[in-house]
Amino acid sequence: MKKTFLTALLMAAITCVAYAEDGSRLWLRSQRNSDLCEITTKDKSNTAKIATRELATYWHGKPVSLIKDKTATGEEGFEITTDKSNGHITIKAKNSCGLLYGAYELLRLQDSGMPVDNINIKENPAVKYRILNHWDNLDRSVERGYAGLSIWKWDEINGDKGTMSLALKERLTTYCRANASIGINGSVINNVNASPKMLNTLYIKKVKVLADMFRDYGIKVYLSVNFASPMAEGGLKTADPLNEGVRTWWKNKVNEIYKEIPDFGGFLVKANSEGQPGPGDYHRTHAEGANMLAEALAPHGGLVIWRSFVYGNHEGEDRVMQAVTEFEDLDGKFNSNVILQTKNGPLDFQPREPYAPLFDQIKHTPMMAELQITQEYLGQSRHLVYLAPMWKEFFSFVNPKQLIGIAGVANTGDDANWCGHHFSQANWYAFGRLAWDPTLSSEQIADEWLKQTFTHDTAFINPMKEVMMSSREACVDYMMPLGLHHIFKADHHYGPEPQGFYPKYPIEWCPVYYHKADSTGIGFDRTMNGTKAVSQYRHPFDSIYNDINTCPEEYLLWFHHVSWNHKMKDGTTLWQSLCAHYNRGVAEAKRFAETWSKMEPYVDRQRFMEVSQRMAEQVENAEEWRDTCLKYFQTFSRQEITK
Ligand code: BDP
């Protein structure tokens, strides 16, 4: 009797876990087949096995053959065709990984309700490297992580035995499936502010366990490295890149890594930035530092991804200009396996920035764009802000064809729903989809994500898609409209602190440095009469941004110090326009919450409640932003705050 009761309880618990809508399944919520679908392939690789298993379990259509064919399109591409006579489907690819991507494409079509009876698709990724950058520390804290602790549970990985706990394996299988389903092919697993311990043999063995798992999903592992590792880990007296002992140390370390992980991706490096060590400590250039690592990695086909997020070495120079100052003369001096990774904007992942002009100035070095999926400056995992429109805006200035890769700072954590906010999952999804194909529209991505993640019901899809599409502009409006930037509270970058001035920090970390509000007006003069930052832009953007009459209003206060009574395009004054934007942002946040409140019939209880809670916070925060900023700026404008 007792046993039966316990069994029943256990069964109930299992059922509950299996069907709980806690967001842990991300967008991978396909209905299982009652019978396995007929999937055939001669490809014996593990990757093809995964593709077969995914389709056999979740594909509800006609039989599918997976065919590896040297003549098929691109390295990672795939072709999907339907045989008109019997409806059978063929996925053809040059490599097994393409077969896996093709399988996920098929499931995406099915799960987002697209027609699947007459498919004729050929796909290739736009850029070669589509990489997540995890800012995860070895103690499992996550820099700018808003979804719990790191997903890498180092204690549950046994490097000597090459195993991990079953629970971790299950969780990371979802991670791999999710990434492969959107074409992500690399993962830098640790923080750019890297601990030298990452290169300890103990950890290299653990990283191997991850790499062995990721490989079958087409994902390569990369590591962030601390430039001073030869000292901290190797006991050397210097980390000077021209020192023979240092060079040998890196070569040996790299060899050790490749012995464990033959397809290791390479190193990501933050050097001489925000207190991190680098070649500059020895009066060497970034190129000398990068090339030393590049030489160690080259025999194994590894990459050095060197970040250009460097400032603070040019006293007095406008911070947004410093990356160009630092790197323009080094263009052409990097070894061929070095990539320069540059944030989309010249400052730091603000809700809106003009594009980073380094993309205009670097002509001979392969470049990757670094986007930030974790919403450090966009309400973190508390606000619904869909980032695809922001990234599309960036791609309208920087052609993805000039990039070799796109990196995204991940928003994952060990929260059940991975990303803190159910809607923040959409940003992970959109990152992968856009890195694969930047021509996809934000609407389409939102549409397919919503359908896979929630429901196909148009009574849900249409209003929520509209909310997602409006959300980034709303965030800009309630936080920092018209080109304002970096007026966040120090350290956590969440709430507003326009009055912020902290003598103990560099001036570039103080909000007052960025808005420069005074009795005459507000904004940062970066024109040819100011810091001349406009001159770093290619023509015609240099002159468009330089002229207050042609500068787009969304960048106005980024490039100009503007009088409070300046006439805006709609005839209102700058002050009135500022008030209007802040008010609009708040009204939008309220509208989003209102729309969500009507979605109860279409969403499971748990996700409905969790998102409702977040929406209420978003409204409160939006009001706080508006009130704090307008009241503070009013002390300079001395004009009435309009409602
Ligand atoms: C800023 C973050 C900081 C990062 C830095 C970086 O506030 O935590 O370490 O960027 O990208 O956005 O290196």
UniProtKB/TrEMBL annotation:
Pfam families: Glyco_hydro_67C, Glyco_hydro_67M. Residues 1-20 form the signal peptide. GO terms for biological process: xylan catabolic process. GO terms for cellular component: extracellular region. Residues 113-397 form the Glycosyl hydrolase family 67 catalytic domain. Keywords: Hydrolase, Signal. Gene3D superfamilies: Alpha-glucuronidase, C-terminal domain, Chitobiase/beta-hexosaminidase domain 2-like, Glycosidases. Residues 419-642 form the Glycosyl hydrolase family 67 C-terminal domain. One of its GO terms (molecular function) is alpha-glucuronidase activity. PANTHER family: ALPHA-GLUCURONIDASE A. This is Alpha-glucuronidase.
